[in-house]
Amino acid sequence: MSAAWAIAHEQGLGAMTLHEVARRVGLRQPSLYVYVESKLDLYDAMFAQANAELLARVDRAGESGSAREQLLRLSRVVLDFAVEDPARQQLLFTRSIPGFTPSAQSYALAEQLIQRTSRLLAELGCGPPQADVYTALIAGLCAQQIANDPGGDRWTRHLEPMLELFLDHFPDSSEPR
Amino acid sequence: MSAAWAIAHEQGLGAMTLHEVARRVGLRQPSLYVYVESKLDLYDAMFAQANAELLARVDRAGESGSAREQLLRLSRVVLDFAVEDPARQQLLFTRSIPGFTPSAQSYALAEQLIQRTSRLLAELGCGPPQADVYTALIAGLCAQQIANDPGGDRWTRHLEPMLELFLDHFPDSSEPR
DNA sequence: GTCTATACTAAGATAGAC
DNA sequence: GTCTATCTTAGTATAGAC
After folding, report:
1. Which superfamily does B2-169 belong to?
2. Which of residues 26-45 of B touch strand C (CB under 7 A)?
């Protein structure tokens, strides 16, 4: 697993091949089939691992404070997590690996985060349409940060002001139709 | 070119191979080397063509009205263009094709749009940091729309309300630090 | 300009010995 | 569990005939 992550981290998720993984762990490529059923199976294990790690961090960020404070903290944790490792972000939040869809078991982990966020948003007066705007905000900062200033904070530093603006004005008004 | 776009459109940009292009135009793969120097060269031609098309649409959207109206129209044209064809969006706005960077000549076209947008933003009191927020807004709507509701408008319909909110509140206040 | 033939690379996966 | 050997597929690119 860590060899697979290392490759994804260094050269992108698409460069992660079973040959290269085997090379790094000092085995021949066919030997890996003792541990994984296929390459997609390995992706699934990585997906589950990354989601578990994210959930752990969100938990560590705690549940204290108002719903608004909690949402701000949760958003910061998620954004930092995503921006920290572009390959991981690609695996978790985009559907861009040909042939890969997470198994039901792995996806259940991802669901937990979605539930948690939706609940907080609902408490703050944001229904599903506003929640879409929220996800677009996060996704936009994340995409721009990774693409144009990897390792920096040129976009991520706008998270809190944007969320404040969003929470102050979007929940009630501005609903299109 | 149109065969290449058709493949990208149907199966994604990564599925565009010289073999498949040749198949579609009734040639053998080596014959394509009369027309392109390499696969990356073909990507570059596609990049230039798509940028030219986008610029043409932006021009057609006209320059009448206030800076605010112009920015709203330009943003709508760009967002619709990007969402319309995910493969094209990937080629133009993400840097996710291994080994591909646009030639200086092709990139000059992309620069024109950037210039135009920056000028409008500046007229509306948005400096570079606010322009970053603007690009994140567009990128976020675009990414979510393509990933989660392709062909629909679940995210893109929020464009105008979000821009209004952004222009009304972000230019002066909310600047982090 | 187009072809055939081929070199080269590299991937995922399987068979069967040890 | 690990290996060698191999199958199968598919890609980019080049050489040289026509």
Report:
1. Tetracycline Repressor, domain 2 (1.10.357.10)
2. 26-28, 30-31, 34-35
